[in-house]
Amino acid sequence: MLAFCAWASVSAALADPLIGRASVIDGDTLDVQGVRIRLHGIDAPEASQLCTRASGEYWRCGAAAANALADHIDQGTVHCLGQGRDRYRRTIAVCTLRGEDLGRWLVVSGWAVAEQRYSRAYVAEEAQARRFRRGIWAGDFDAPRDWRRTHRGG
Question: What's the pLDDT tens digit per position in 60-82?
Answer without folding.
Answer: 999 999 999 999 999 999 999 99
